[in-house]
Amino acid sequence: MRRLAILGSTGSIGTNTLEVIRESAGELAVWGLAAGHNLPLLYEQILEFAPALVSVATPEAAERLERRLAENGGPRPRVLSGPPGNLAVATAEEVDTVVSAAVGVAGLEATYEAVRRGKRVALANKEVLVAAGELVTQAAEKSGAELLPVDSEHNGVHQCLRRVGRRQDVRRLILTASGGPFRNTPPAALASVVPEQALQHPTWNMGRRITINSATLMNKGFEVIEAHWLFAFEPGQIDVVIHPQSTVHAMIEFADGSVIAQLSVTDMKMPIQYALYYPERRACPENRRLDWQDMRQWTFEPPDGDKFPALGLAYRVLERGGSAGCTLNAADEVAVAAFLEGRITFPAMAQIVAETLSTVPVTQPGSIAEVLEVDRVSRRCAAEIVSRRQVEAGAVAG
């Protein structure tokens, strides 16, 4: 039996992970759950999976959860809160596999400490490698921890590389992107895009921030950075192609020009199951298999870097190194929140990130605490840029 801790159990990846566990016939068990503020769903998860340890966002939320558990009977896990609670869930001796699916830098410290302790980490939290890729991969190399990607694209690369005899025979990695809802939208029309439109992803059902980032291609930029740290390929060896059907998730090209690809249905339970059972492969339900009788045309095209500049920012961040990735992530989170609140336009998100990157100095963080300090400074800088732009826009309108 493999004992799991799930950071972000009430989110999209967390709930899909629990579905895979339901299908495991007892081979996978939940030892710990960490969530944010969605106490009703977490309560239901506790009743079903009976974890030994649970963490929530705040002490107040922990008190409310404990009261409800006491009043209604059933499992009585130990309930903690905040970053210390996340850390306890991820580093418990009883846990051998940590699913890192918490949103934002909230899951960074706990994931890093799980890696330091040599645990297998099924990684779905982009911020871990975007903000602290060098520290995390160094810790994994030292401890022997396995980093198994849950993102469909990196999971696809991982599967392709399993079939590689000699690493030097691989010329490049190719990540696919759906292109988002504005793939065919004229650039001039993007300034009038509203959040409701940007949240309509054509193929995947995801959280709000990642859906907006898919619309700007920032999400794909994050994945380029992640691919660099996960697979040790240089930025010039990592390409992105637009594939609207989202069936081919990743490809690798060999030195002789041959290409192999990984394909599957657009269902996150596929890469989750792969990561949890690796190196074994387990059977999946029929509804998670490609129907070759229903195959339609697959298309591929290059991304439009002028229309979606966020992707180029990620490549520049990789070239700069150091704390630039942390600043990229922090500024993006601030910009996305401002867009969702109607405070800035769709194109302004990439502009704010670019200005923040130009303003915040690049350093070489030597610890997670230093990474989190860069995150704080970068968020403050991005927030100031957003506020200034609002003032300037109000003055022009007036």
Which band does the percent of strand residues land in?
Answer: 5-15%
Structural class: alpha/beta
Rg measurement, Å: 21 Å
Largest sheet: 7 strands, parallel
Termini Cα gap: 65 Å
Cα shape: globular
Strand order of the largest sheet: 4-3-2-1-5-6-7
Could you report the average pLDDT, rounded to the nearest whole number? Answer: 94
Oligomeric organization of the protein chains: single chain
Model regions low in confidence, pLDDT < 50 over at least 5 residues = none
Number of helices: 15
What is the β-strand count?
11
Q: In percent, how helical is the residue content?
A: 40-55%
H/E topology pattern: EHEHEHEHEHEHEHEHHHEEEHHHHH
Commentary on this structure:
The chain is α/β, with parallel strands linked by helices. It is 47% helix and 14% strand. The protein is built from 15 helices and eleven strands. It has helices at residues 12-22, 39-49, 59-72, 82-91, 108-116, 126-143, 152-161, 195-198, 208-216, 218-231, 269-277, 310-320, 324-340, 348-359, 368-397; strands at 2-7, 28-34, 53-56, 78-81, 97-100, 120-123, 147-149, 170-177, 238-242, 248-254, 259-263. The strands form two sheets. A seven-stranded parallel sheet has the order 4-3-2-1-5-6-7, sandwiched between helices. A four-stranded mixed sheet has the order 9-8-10-11, covered by helices on one side. The longest helix is centred in the C-terminal third of the chain and has 30 residues, at 368-397. The relative contact order is 0.11.
In short, what is this structure?
The chain is of the alpha/beta class and 398 residues long.
